[in-house]
Amino acid sequence: MSIRGGLSRLLRPWRGSREPAWPTPDDPELTVVVEATDETESVSTVLARSPAWTPEYPAVLRYRIAVGSAAVPELREPLEAEGWLLRTETMTPGSGDASTSESTVLVAQCVRRIDTMTCARESSRMVGLAQRHGGHLAGWQALQLPDESDRSR
User: Is the dihedral of CA 142, 147, 150, 152 positive or negative?
Assistant: First the structure.
């Protein structure tokens, strides 16, 4: 038996015997564990104030990008090529958007394990994409499935 195999077997009772389930973005059991609406707030601060986030578990990372409807096709192409799942929502003035005209919110989602570096890199990228197309990042969230022990309650 290798050392790695022995350690893995010894630690299994504490970390669970199964790998956590990888969620799908449309799973109704997903709960928001991290949320940020201020693009200037550091990701480490956002994650630190999120006690429900479990770093070892995969999450659905969801970004909301507010842009004019003409920019949506230009944003879709590179994001879909990288495996992001996209959908659109329409925002009208007075529904939380600071702009005066109707804009489209592109919701980009992917599933991965997240950490400070991953979220900071993706947030910076989404802010840049939005700004290059005359929009802004309207916020981001991380969603995770409840812990197995929480599901049985």
Answer: positive
pLDDT tens column, 88-134:
987 765 555 444 456 899 999 999 999 999 999 999 999 999 999 99
- Which helix H or strand E contains 75, and what residues bound it? helix 72-81
Nearest to 109 by CA among 133, 88, 134, 130: 88
Q: How far apart are CA 137 and CA 40, in angstroms?
A: 10
Sign of the alpha-carbon dihedral angle for 145, 79, 71, 37: positive
Its pTM stands at: 0.79
How far is 143 from 85, CA to CA, in rounded Å?
15
Q: CA torsion sign, 97 to 145 to 21 to 25?
A: negative
Instruction: Please give the order of strands across the beta sheet that includes 31-36.
Output: 31-36, 136-144, 58-67, 103-113, 85-91
Helices and strands, counts by H and E, the chain: 5, 5
* pLDDT for 70: 92
- Residue 113 neighbours by CB under 8 Å, 6+ apart: 55, 56, 57, 58, 59
Work out the mean pLDDT of the chain and round it to a whole number.
84
CB atoms within 10 A of CB 29: 12
